[in-house]
Structure formats: C-alpha cells, structure tokens
Design a protein that fits this description.
5 helices; six-stranded mixed beta sheet; alpha/beta; globular; 22% strand
Length: 176
Amino acid sequence: MGTQLVADRPGAARCILGIDPGLNITGYAVIHRDGGNLRLSEAGIVRSRAKDTLPERLKELSDGIREVIAAHPIELVALEQLFSHYERPRTAILMGHARGVICLAAAEAGLPMAHYEPTRVKKVMTGNGHASKSQMQLAVKLQLSLATSPEPADVADAMAIALTGHYLAGNPLANA
C-alpha cells in the first residue's frame, strides 16, 4: 500500500516519470497516484556503454526512455535541471546532450515536462536544500512505503524527482 496523500488537486498528474539524467547512467522511476495512495510502479536505470560513440550512447538512452514511456500511461515527465560544474564543463555538456534526447522523447510522446533543480528536489523531499544522499534515500523510502532504501543513488534520485513532480504538479504556488 502506498503513502496516504492529501486529496487530489486539480491538474495533478496521476502517473509521473521522474528522471535523473546522465550519459553513463540515467535513473528513472514511475509513480502512480490512485486516489489518495501513491505507489511506485517501476524504477531502474538506462545505461550506455562508455566505449560506444556519443550518438550510439544517446540513441541507447533515447530508446530506453521511449520504452518506459510506452509501457506506462505517463502524464508528466519530471526531469532534473542541468546545473553547471564550472571546473568540469565537459560533464555539463554531456549532461546537456542526455537531457536533450530525454526532452525530445517526451515531446514526441506529447508529454508535458517539469524541470527541477537538485536543491529544489531536496527541499521538497526533506525540507533541506542541501540534504545528503542518505537523507534523500530515507525520505524516498518513507514517502513510498518501501521496505528498504532505494539503490543505486540514480534510482533514488529519480524517485525523488518523480515525487517532487507529484507534489508540485497543478500547484499554482510551485513556481512562486
């Protein structure tokens, strides 16, 4: 049984795909809201091979996300916002490529998207915009009534992003 939630809000999505994008490993999680219950439907990773070319890796990521979208009645895609590591611009550029193919897959499926900065996700989930990975995993475990903390961290992050999408979707104050 999922977590009990406040009554449904108009405009709140019932099926949300949360994505923690990365070129090597992309975590994803699909959560469903059934009335006042929230449950995890599926979670996992899409992995690309470092030895493949960039186009091959992006195709692998795109195909994996499209497969998840096709398997569920997704109403909203919640995606972690790109943040820049100035000391590692290559990482930010590669992350931008990954986010681009994810956004394209969602757009081609006609799905709305929400983008959340990592600090916003942490704040929504724990009340602390600088929460640790272990705090986030515990928050996800409790809010989805999971038996154990989710692993790996990419999947836990995707679950947190999906939950953030749930809590903020349809909320007129979400972007205030």
